[in-house]
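[09:14] KT: can someone run the structure on this one? pasting the chain below
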Amino acid sequence: LQSAANRSSDRLFRTQENFRKDLMHALDGFSREVQDFQRDFKKNGPVSEQLKPHEGVSCLTKYQKLYEEKAKKLVAYRQGEKLFGLTPMSFDGLTSIKTSIALLSNLYTLYTKYKKSVDDYMKITFPNLRARLEKMRTELKSYAEKLDKLDKALLLYPACIEIREGLHALHEILPIIENLVKTSIVKQLTPSCGLS
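[09:31] RB: done, structure tokens below
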């Protein structure tokens, strides 16, 4: 019985050692994978200030998914390191990418919402303009506040520039629109423009 227990113990130890070696090998491969991903992210990812806004949005989506795949792997490897009592390997590249993705996500989410709002403004018919004016003013103010809160590193991105310039233009024409929808002017324009 004692020798059977010893054989089982030896077998378990060898199996455990094999799993540990497999984990170490997988961690080495994952380290190379993270380095390759970091190089690719810097070269082809959404961090380029030269990307057109719509390209930046799709590029961010792509790299966000790739990052999430790597993050899931990292969680599994961390569990293995803990199980075998290993010192956790450092993957600073993933942390850096996570930070960049979070910053760019703020920018491109704002850009997407802003563009949708502007598209919606363009579809407002003249008779409905007065009812929507306050909402437009509130939304534009909110976009300007959010834009001001963005990280300063994002100021030169085309999406940021497009939002800033668009907000400026909308703020300039808003008083004109407000004057156009005044009751006295609407009464004058209605018969001559065929508005009802």
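[09:33] KT: thanks! The radius of gyration is 28 Å.
[09:34] RB: yep, looked fine to me
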